[in-house]
Structure formats: C-alpha cells, structure tokens
C-alpha cells in the first residue's frame, strides 16, 4: 500500500506530538510544536530572549572560529564562504543575505517565521563579522586544530541554546522541516539532499572543504543532543493555544543547519 504525501505529513505531525507528550511525562522540558504567535504567548520571555541571543551570539563566534581554523567548514558555510569570493560582501553579510533568500523559499511551503527566525537571519552574520575582525588565524597546525575542535563544540552548545529558547527555527532549519512536512519525505533524506547540494555549490565556488567539514557532520548531532535537554526552556501551552495553534504548528524542530536532529534527544 502506498502512503500519500499528506498522510505521511500527518503521521510526522502525530509522531512529533507523541514525542512531546512523552517528554512531558518523563519530566523533561519538551520542544513544543508552537506557531509563531503561540511562541510569543508561551511565557518566560525575558529568559527565552536572553538565551536566544546568547545562543545566536555564540553561534556567530563559533562560525568565525571554524573559518579562522582554515580546516574546513560545515556545508552551509562552505557555500557562504564560496560566495564571498564572488561578491563584494563580507562573510557575515553573505550569511545575512543568504538567510533572507532561504526565507523566501518558506513562502511556497506555507511556513511562518518566528521571532527567533528573524533574529537568527540577522544576528549571527553580525556577530560572525565582529568576531572575524578580532580573531587572528593561528599559524600552528595544532592551534588550528584546537580552534576547530572548540568551534565545533561551541557551535553545538549555541545551536542547543537558540533551539531551546523555543522562539522559532533558523531559516535553514525551517526550510528543511518545511520540505519534510509538505512532501512527507524523510527528514534525514531532505537534510542530506539540502546539505550535499549547498556543499557541492560551495565547493565549486571555492569554499573551504576539509577535515572540519567531516568533523562537523559527524559530531554536531550528538553535541546538540547532549546539550539540548540541559538548556531547553520549560514552557506550558496557554489554554487558548491547546488544541488549536499547537495542532497547526510546524513539527518540533530537529536540530540541524543544519545537520542537527535535536528532536532525537527526546
């Protein structure tokens, strides 16, 4: 029997809600399937906003660390790095422009950005450029390797922080989950296809591919899986949102730009 696209998408939504309820029963903070409006109504905003911007700031710092290591970048940053050689923009500016270009792809997916989505699109690029302006690339290979390793770990923590704030996925994460929801294709297949595509284009454009690219791909999922339960903000759905907005919301974000399946830690 063949399953239709809509039925596969519905099954994904149902599985997401079951995992959320299971996490709640286990006493763990759950990543709730909230619409953008419900995200703003879910409470604890000072804590969540602080965590969001700390996470986004650390994410920008970690991206600069990977760049300065010159040992390889994650797939999306290989693409960004490749583009910088062909346009009169800084790396951070390319990240910002690419983020809003990706957000345009949300339109046919009928996906709505949250506050965290817009902040992600702007702030990470700003912090990356600021960090690059003060961070010097080490000349010693050992130091470059240490910078790479620290950058990957920091990236995992940063991703968990901004995801755990529950204020919306990043543009690239949302594209991945939106394609999964609309097509019913496995999230892993969608993620792999997207990242291989941007990696190939980035490499052809001259982006840096190397040991860091492999290390990032192998370690970022487990790192986010480790950190996410420690930093996810515990929220309760407002009474008016239960059974309405929560049912229509995008499935719980799985950590990736990116190659992240945060939901797997549930």
UniProtKB/TrEMBL annotation:
What domain of life does the UniProt record list for this protein's source?
Bacteria
The residue ranges crossing the membrane are 49-67, 87-106, 118-137, 143-164
Q: Does the keyword Iron-sulfur apply?
A: no
Show the segment(s) annotated as Disordered: 1-25
Its recorded name reads Integral membrane protein
Q: Which Pfam families match?
A: DUF6198
InterPro entries from the entry? YczE/YyaS-like (IPR038750)
Cite the entry's keywords alphabetically: Membrane, Transmembrane, Transmembrane helix
């Amino acid at each position: 029997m063949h399953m239709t696209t809509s039925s596969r998408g519905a099954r994904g939504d149902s599985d997401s809600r079951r995992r959320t309820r299971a996490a709640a029963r286990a006493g763990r903070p759950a990543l709730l399937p909230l619409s953008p409006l419900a995200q703003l109504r879910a409470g604890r905003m000072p804590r969540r906003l602080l965590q969001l911007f700390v996470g986004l700031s650390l994410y920008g710092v970690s991206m600069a660390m990977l760049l300065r290591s010159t040992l390889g970048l994650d797939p999306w940053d290989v693409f960004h790095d490749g583009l910088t050689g062909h346009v009169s923009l800084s790396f951070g500016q390319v990240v910002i422009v690419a983020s809003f270009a990706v957000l345009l792809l949300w339109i046919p997916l009928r996906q709505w950005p949250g506050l965290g989505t817009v902040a992600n699109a702007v702030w990470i690029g700003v912090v990356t450029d600021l960090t690059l302006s003060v961070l010097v690339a080490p000349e010693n290979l050992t130091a470059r390797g240490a910078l790479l390793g620290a950058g990957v770990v920091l990236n995992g923590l940063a991703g968990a922080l901004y995801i755990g704030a529950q204020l919306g996925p990043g543009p690239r994460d949302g594209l991945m989950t939106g394609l999964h929801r609309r097509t019913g294709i496995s999230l892993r297949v969608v993620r792999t296809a997207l990242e291989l595509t941007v990696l190939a284009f980035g490499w052809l454009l001259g982006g840096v591919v190397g040991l860091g690219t492999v290390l990032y791909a192998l370690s970022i999922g487990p790192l986010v899986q480790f950190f996410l339960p420690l930093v996810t903000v515990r929220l309760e759905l407002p009474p008016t949102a239960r059974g309405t907005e929560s049912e229509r919301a995008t499935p719980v974000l799985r950590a990736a730009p990116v190659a992240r399946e945060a939901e797997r830690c549930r």
